[in-house]
Write a structure and sequence with these properties.
By secondary structure, this protein is α+β, with helices and mostly antiparallel strands. The chain has 5 helices and 6 strands. A 3-stranded antiparallel sheet has the order 1-4-5, with no helix packed on it. The longest helix is centred in the N-terminal third of the chain and has 27 residues. The relative contact order is 0.12.
Length: about 200
Amino acid sequence: MSYKPEKSALEKSTGVITVIVFHLVIIYALAVGLNHDPMDIIKQQIDAKIIEEEAPPPEEAPPPPPPEFVPPPPDFVPPPDIEFTADAAPTNTNAITVSTKPVVEAPKATPPRVPKKGLSRPPYPSSSLRLGEEGLVGLSLSLGADGKVLDGKVAVSSGFERLDTAALKHAIRSWRFEPCMSGDKPIACSYRMNFRFKISDEKGR
């Protein structure tokens, strides 16, 4: 004799609840499906197909217009000959008169001259004598209207500063020329003069 134990009250309740929940799910699914309009589904399919279609290629731009025709220039046509008649020259009453007097040139200045008594020799520096320094000194002198040396500079050096300085100082301090002359008038002028320092000349004095 078989024996089948009876289900407990909890198991019975769980089974009932499961069945109720299953039916509720089926009812909800049916309700949601019935709420959708079949036309909406068809419309969505049509829209999807329209979107997937490729866009048509862009239209090509129209060709540019042909260049404007420019006619070539006409052949060269020489201008007509025109004769001009010169009018008589008007008389200018305000004409400038030109003097025909001869231009008298100023008399050329004569250079200064060494006086008859001559010029004194610059003293030979003792250091230069001892060291054997010799050379030619070129002086550029500025003379006054009386022939006196007003200023000067060494134009050509002897190669020894002592000789150059001795010659220039002596010339400014002691030399006096017969002045430059412009006609019969004495004038200031410039004059170049050279002086040579030579030990043999100094020993023969």
